[in-house]
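hey can u check if this looks right to u? its 355 residues, i copy pasted from the old doc so theres a chance i mangled smth
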Amino acid sequence: MRQRFSQILNSSNPQILKSLALAGILAVAPLSGDLLIAQTATNGRASPRDQKWTAPRTPDGKPDLQGIWDFRTVTPMERPSEFADRPTLTSDEAAAYERHIVEGRNADTNRDKTTSRGVINGTNTTADVALAYNEFWWDRGTKVVGGLRTSLIVDPPDGRIPALTPAAQKRLEAMDEARERPALGPEDRSVGERCILGFNSGPPMVPGGYNQNVQIVQTPGYVMLMNEMVHNARIVPLDGRPQGSLRQWVGTSRGHWDGDTLVVETKNFSRETALRGSSPNLRLTERFTRADANTLLYEFTVDDPTTWTRPWTARVPMQRTDDQIFEYACHEANYGMTNLLQGARFIEKASSDRP
């Protein structure tokens, strides 16, 4: 896909380049190759496939986590009902599941074939409008995670997010109602739609549709986690300083080393986070462990007693990639939000004009 993207960027056809610029999608996809991540586990933690392998070290003696890591997968966050009592799949079952998911979500082959289509330079523009992007622009995972697990959630054992509290149910119902009616203001729309937070950049980081790369840079006193989605960079101090009480969209992160695992604890979120349903009371614990030369095991525990009835944990093996981090200029003056609010006012006026 990266080859195809380069061909388009080098195209001399002004219509193609103009349509790309207008769509604002030149920097959407990280365009990595498909990956099958393998890892083993001991007592719930990752262990190297080759027991002779040891993690490289930074000059100050810490495990070297630096590089660009890809976290795409078709493994869902929650275990599908058809695998209710199955934490893992066989190789044949995993291959069949991968085919089913990849074919089922293909935006090109599953479009409404009865719809009239416009074609510009060989591109089906109707499908682009109807489905936001055609399949070319997606960069979703095509393989299940290592161990052939049926869910990213590893605790609770059923692979499902715990039940919502009654207060959270009411809060989410109110949010859903706000999204269904004409928006009174931008606050009625999600933080992802407003380009405040990326839908997969977190914290925590979860697989999504594209831009599923994170770059890690280490210094003796800090770790930087820069997500390709919305180009968000978290600077995490490692010196034990307090988290304070200042609330931010991505919370306040502090890190420390637990043996060879980097632990990042985050709290003080300002409102809902990129994790659907969470509240400002979310306390997030992330763990980063080198499992082998090409695998970084990412694990996060969500503790938000005002939202869920118990904490829960998910695990995502990330794969090293040689691809670059591309700028994701989500906002671009956010013309979409302006148009959305103008449309809402038009709907209100049209409704008030009716007899």
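The chain has one domain: 26-112+119-353.
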